[in-house]
Amino acid sequence: MKLNKILNKKQYAEYCNRVLELSNLLSTGKNMPDKKELTRQLFILELIIEHYENTQANPFAKLNPVDLLKALMVEYAYSGRKLAKELKIPESVISEILNYKRRFSKDVVIKLAKKFNMGEILL
C-alpha cells in the first residue's frame, strides 16, 4: 500500500480501516515473516491520520464565547432553562449571557467546560 498525505474523507476512512486491519493482524501474536514491515506501516498510518485530524478545521474556532455556547446548546438540544437547571445556576444568568448583558463568570465557565467536556480556554 502506497502511503500519502490524506486529502479527503474517503482516503481518511480507507486509512482508518487499514489501521484496524493491521492492528487486528498484529494482535494475533502469530509469528509472521513481514511483521516488522506491517508494524512500520501501522506506525506511519497512525502518524498520517493524526496529522490529518489535527489539521481539520474546528467548526467552533471562529465563534465568540456566546455564539459557541449557543451552538453547543443547539447541538445538545438544551434550552436556557434546562442548561441552567443542570448547571445549578439561575436561568437569568444564562439568558443574560446569551443576550450579551452579562459576561461569563469563572464559575460558569468551569461548569460549562465540565458539562460539554471542553477546555475552559475555549469559552
Account of the protein in words:
The structure is a single chain. The chain has 123 residues and is mostly helical. The protein has 2 domains: 9-55; 65-122, lambda repressor-like DNA-binding domains (434 Repressor (Amino-terminal Domain)), CATH 1.10.260.40. It contains 6 helices and no strands. It has helices at residues 9-27, 35-55, 65-75, 80-87, 91-98, 106-115. α4 (80-87) packs across α5 (91-98). The radius of gyration is 22 Å and the shape is elongated. The two termini are 42 Å apart. The model has no long low-confidence stretch (mean pLDDT 90).
In brief:
The protein is mainly alpha-helical.
Topology as a string of helices (H) and strands (E): HHHHHH
β-strand number: 0
Low-confidence stretches: none
H/I helix tally: 6
CATH top level label of the largest domain: Mainly Alpha
Note the gap between the termini.
Answer: 42 Å
Helix content, binned percent: 55-70%
CATH architectural label of the largest domain: Orthogonal Bundle
Q: Which fold name corresponds to the CATH topology of the largest domain? A: 434 Repressor (Amino-terminal Domain)
The gross shape turns out to be: elongated
How would a textbook summarize the main sheet?
Answer: none
**CATH superfamily descriptor of the largest domain:** lambda repressor-like DNA-binding domains
When the domains are counted, the total is 2
Mean pLDDT: 90
Question: What fraction of the residues are assigned to beta strands by DSSP?
Answer: under 5%
Rg over CA atoms, rounded to whole Å, is: 22 Å
SS class: mainly alpha
